[in-house]
Amino acid sequence: MTAVVETEGLTKFYGSRRGLEDLTFAIQPGEVFGYLGPNGAGKTTTIRLLLDLIRPTSGRATVLGADTRDTAVRARIGYLPGELALEGKERAHTYLNFLADVRGGVSRGRIDELAERLDADLSITMGELSKGNKQKVGLIQAFMHDPELLILDEPTSGLDPLVQQEFLAMVREVRTSGRTVLMSSHVLAEVEHVADRVGIVRSGRLVAVEDVAALRERAVRHVELQFDAPVPKEAFDGLPGVRDLGVEGASLRCTIDGRPDALIKAAAKFTVVHLVSAEPDLEEIFLTYYSEEEAPHDRADA
Amino acid sequence: MTALTRKTLREYRRALIGWTVGLCAFLGMYISIFASMKDDPETLSAQAIAKYPGPLKDLMGGMADIATGAGFLQTIAYQLLGPMLFIMCASIVGNRAIAGPEESGVLELTVTLPIDRKRLVLDRWLALALGVLAVAVVTFAVVVTAASAAGMGVPFGRILAAHTGLFLVVMFFGTLAVCVGAASGRKQIALAVVGVWAVAGYVIETLGKTVDAIAWLRWLSPFHYYLDGRPLYQGWPVGDYLVLLGATAVLLMTAVLAFDRRDVGV
Questions:
Q1: Tens digits of per-residue pLDDT, B19-59?
Q2: % of chain B surpassing 70 pLDDT
Q3: By three-state DSSP, how is residue A139 classified?
Q4: Is the Cβ of A108 closer than 8 Å to some Cβ of chain B?
């Protein structure tokens, strides 16, 4: 099985500023790959390297088996830029027809079908599109030629929740038909429901590639428990994976790394009235990976 | 014509129509003044010339024969203001080939289409060339009509020769804007280079005739190859025009190679 996207030591410096360093990863056919990281971490740099908008300082990348410099291969890619700019007096529909002409492979009525699905008004001139409508036009042009590879940079920004759901359904359909998706985001919640694997990039370096299921397991969760009567703190001291424990009368707060199993079993000895477990916060997952990454450096520096 | 060239022409259409209307109004109005000057050439041309000090007269191309049809047409339409306005039009539109859309971010999607980068520059330049050609054809028709209505008596062939030169020098600067934009991705840089080269080139060509110290610089000025052959008086300066064509081709090639090499939208 040949990888759809494959990079080896891919590095990009803007002058002396690091954009991306030594990126080696592969995306397999039929996979939805979530590319996560805070703003400025190197997500967009990676994507723009794959599309040959910018050239690597060193390393190499192939897309659909071809070098990124290969122009023809881009007809088989759908791309949604992170900051999509559309302007001018041209109607959105005319612009989409132009893109379809150049790329080929857009069946009749496909544009209207997608427009209806995303509830986009294509009769508006591009300069007057709202942010949400712009993003819809961007999604339509990325999906309309049924590309083998979709590269979507922050695809859900500016979409209202209903359209987001429709978009996620479209991504699932792409995966079902065996095609591949690379989508970036700075919010795990946006990709966790569709992505098979996620890569986490931080300060220009890929710090982890994980199955989404495994990542959830490693995620940090804040848990709050309410009991019907005050509980002794000692009953919860030293539980594996439990940090920042605080017991005040009948309420308990703590942070859990990984599985909540030990805490649940300890709590089962008492009567639980109320349990709140916050959605894992991606920023904290980053921090976990980041501190693991940075700690050895600190020692080396000292 | 490729889909990209057609699309680019649609983008330029409004600006080109606007400039055509403006240039035609300018040319038509000024040429029609000749009809009144013709009534009393001696007094009126003396008055006109008297208004300008010596060096300024040089800048306006001498003006000695402003009372004749060819002299008037040269001074008004083909010497300074006509070319400068038309060059402004071509460089502003030429800036929209690469640098404009790159700065606004619109170019991002275009570059990721299955179009070779070299092809992309050529297609967008071709749209500029066709647009400028259309403006040149319309303004030519206006000049010919207005000149004959004003009774200038300049032969059609001479006007065609002069207007062809105008088209070539305008395309040189339009292509220069495309080239600097393609190499740098910055509109301001492209406009600055065009502005400085056009103004300095014109001054050097006109003053260089009398000031020996800068005479050798004239060969660097595109206006030298446009003005020196005096097409309105002497017909086609074929060699000069070929130099303009060749220089434009070099600029276009530079644009293509520069854009193919660099990062876009950084």
A1: 999 999 999 999 988 888 777 777 777 777 777 777 777 77
A2: 100
A3: helix
A4: no
Nearest to A155 by CA among A140, A132, A177, A139: A139
Q: Which residues of A touch B116 (CB under 8 A)?
A: 71
Q: Which residues in chain A touch residue B266, judged by CB atoms under 8 angstroms apart?
A: 14, 54
Q: CA A29 to CA B256: how far, in whole Å?
A: 35
Phi, psi of A181, rounded to the nearest 5 degrees: -130, 135
Instruction: Give CB contacts under 8 A, 24+ apart, made by B238-246.
Output: B240/B165, B241/B164, B241/B165, B241/B168, B244/B165, B244/B168, B244/B169, B244/B171, B244/B172, B245/B168
Closest approach of A299 to chain B, Cα-based (Å): 35
Closest CA to B226 of B167, B178, B179, B177: B167
The CB-side HSE value for B24 (13 A sphere, CA atoms) comes to 17
Ordered by start, the domain boundaries in chain B are 3-32+78-260
- The pLDDT-based confidence of A301 (bands split at 50, 70, 90) is very low
With helix as H, strand as E and coil as C, how does chain B read? CCHHHHHHHHHHHHHHHHHHHHHHHHHHHHHHCHHHHHHCHHHHHHHHHHCCCHHHHHHCCCCCCCCCHHHHHHHHHHHCHHHHHHHHHHHHHHHCCCHHHHHHCCHHHHHCCCCCHHHHHHHHHHHHHHHHHHHHHHHHHHHHHHHHHCCCCCCHHHHHHHHHHHHHHHHHHHHHHHHHHHHHCCHHHHHHHHHHHHHHHHHHHHHCCCCHHHHHHHHHCHHHHHHCCCHHHHCCCHHHHHHHHHHHHHHHHHHHHHHHHCCCCC
Structure tokens at B99: 């640098």
Q: How far is A220 from chain B (nearest CA, A)?
A: 36
Say if the Cβ atoms of B11 and A90 lie within 8 Å. Answer: yes
Residue of B nearest to A55 (CA): B263
Interface mutation vs chain A, best among B112, B123, B261, most A CBs within 10 Å: B112
Q: Could you identify the residue written with the tokens 């959830």? A: A216
The pLDDT tens digits for B130-167 are: 999 999 999 999 999 999 998 888 999 999 999 999 99
Give the integer Cα–Cα distance in Å for A283 and A186.
Answer: 9
Model pTM score: 0.87
Residue A147 CB partners (closer than 8 Å, separation 6+): A76, A77, A78, A179
Q: Does A274 touch chain B (CB under 8 A)?
A: no
Chain B CB contacts of A88 below 8 Å: 11, 106
Give CA–CA dist A289/B18, Å, rounded.
Answer: 58
Alpha helices in chain A (DSSP H): 43-50, 92-103, 110-118, 131-143, 161-176, 188-191, 212-218, 261-267, 282-301
Inspect the interface and report whether the beta carbons of B4 and A102 lie closer than 8 Å.
yes
Contact in structure between B64 and B226 (CB atoms under 8 Å): no
A246 DSSP β-pair partners: A253
